[in-house]
Amino acid sequence: MTKLFIGVDGGGTKTLTVVIDEQGNELGRHHSGGSNHHSVGEELAREAIFEGIKETVKKAGGSLSDVARVCLGISGIDRPEDQVLVGTWMNDILPSVTYDVSNDAVIALASGTMGKLYGCVIISGTGCIAYGFNRQGKSTRSAGWGPLLGDEGAGYQVGFDMLKAIVSAKDETRPKTLMTDKVLTQLCMKSEDELITWAYDPKNQGWQKFAQLAPIATECALAGDVAAQQVLDKNVQAMVEYIQSVFVKLGLDKESESVPLVLAGGNIERECLYSNQLKASIAKILPNAKPVFPSCDSGKGAALLALEKYKSASTAEK
Amino acid sequence: MTKLFIGVDGGGTKTLTVVIDEQGNELGRHHSGGSNHHSVGEELAREAIFEGIKETVKKAGGSLSDVARVCLGISGIDRPEDQVLVGTWMNDILPSVTYDVSNDAVIALASGTMGKLYGCVIISGTGCIAYGFNRQGKSTRSAGWGPLLGDEGAGYQVGFDMLKAIVSAKDETRPKTLMTDKVLTQLCMKSEDELITWAYDPKNQGWQKFAQLAPIATECALAGDVAAQQVLDKNVQAMVEYIQSVFVKLGLDKESESVPLVLAGGNIERECLYSNQLKASIAKILPNAKPVFPSCDSGKGAALLALEKYKSASTAEK
């Protein structure tokens, strides 16, 4: 039986587990429930990970003893005590297997670099973070502070900026914008005043609802709306700054060869206005940054990372 | 016995009631519990208003039959059904007395104009709103949308902008700022990372905690901190725009005589950097705006408003 390498992309509501062989071929995948123990509790989180590992190994036609290495990227696993907890789970199911626990950004980087931890990733989904590694293995980040402390470029921040443009147009402190009608229609509202009840509704909290407005900004900018374009410009500019700071802090801007810059997250998908603008801005400021889109999802990225780490360790042993 | 005029400044946690005579002299005041029924419930809100009216009339040495007019400014009383509710309370305690129910901004304006509803008020407290009346009695507002939809100039927005400057300095996307040490000290934190737990703490929600950081921005700007000055500039600029839009919408900018601009709320008190900057910016853009600070609190402003309305009605009858 071939050696198996397992990647886990764990979130608050769902977990994707992917198994690959030593050549990087995918042999199976499995979706289970949330594995962020802050969201679902320890019992369910542990169970989601166990289920993913067992089911993918089964789909690969192997057994747990074939697993050579595991890489887990789990949201909300930031503190040392979180890592210790995941360690106890891994010790229960695969006591003799080396594993790594990373944050989401690390496996998103791996999804664009075929498992190599080198370069920078920018993720613009509901939130936004830039994360990178240099050749010496040093890592750093910018942003990732959440909606109240910043994180421009994030879906919710684009949403906030759109809503500000809409209420400012209503106040007549800013020009009218196409976004008003589009947003009110999407939210089934008759007037801007209803936005207040919606925004502060204690029964509908969370930042996702703001992030869900973001596609309207792109749509309106493409239709020539100045206010929408300003929202995109401001958020693209912020992302450029995050990326630049990661490059500078790691010395990546001084590399003579091109450095991978992975563009990940729902807001900067291939060929959208937002990602095109981001690429154009980056080209001016960081000419050696090579924007790439993920070649796989983060679950497979995690599995490729496990494979790469296994190869490096084997080489080091020789 | 002189006629009595009663003003009520009602909030979520406390209510101030003030009684004056026909010459505008204060005869008594009383503090009772919250009278925003959304916060404390109908029973307690009604009781807080009854208590305030009864106690101030007693302090004035009069009786309920001496009350000539009442003006209530109560937070959270925006919808028609809220106004109807307050009407049923007033009918219970003072069935034959004319009363007005306004929002907080109206009685804040009155606190700077000796009860006349003419001109504009800008309030920068925890939130921010601009509100005005022209000579024809037409009113309008700008801002007042709350922390997620805008309201720059508000205490919480100054706080958000400060925190963004601090985390951006940590990310090295913005220069270092004096605000970092001052804010971390005030919040008893060792590093910026602790801001995340503090900002999103489900046990310590609410926007007041962000607004409480605002005085540090002024302090740091006075010490020459560029980032702090930028925070103030941005928020002052927004307030100028709100004021300008109220002036333009009401035609106040076209008045040949000076128009009162009342500067109210804890962030723009007399002779502070923030209000001085605001006054300087307004002088350039709206030369006929005459900035004034409230000459009394909003409770007395409400009482003066009741007196002015009584006088106008009496004049109209003649």
Automatic annotation (TrEMBL), chains A, B:
Pfam families in UniProt: BcrAD_BadFG
E.C. code: 2.7.1.59
UniProt enzyme class: transferase
GO molecular function: N-acetylglucosamine kinase activity
Domain annotation ATPase BadF/BadG/BcrA/BcrD type: ranges: 6-306
Family (UniProt): Belongs to the eukaryotic-type N-acetylglucosamine kinase family.
Protein name as it appears in the record: N-acetyl-D-glucosamine kinase
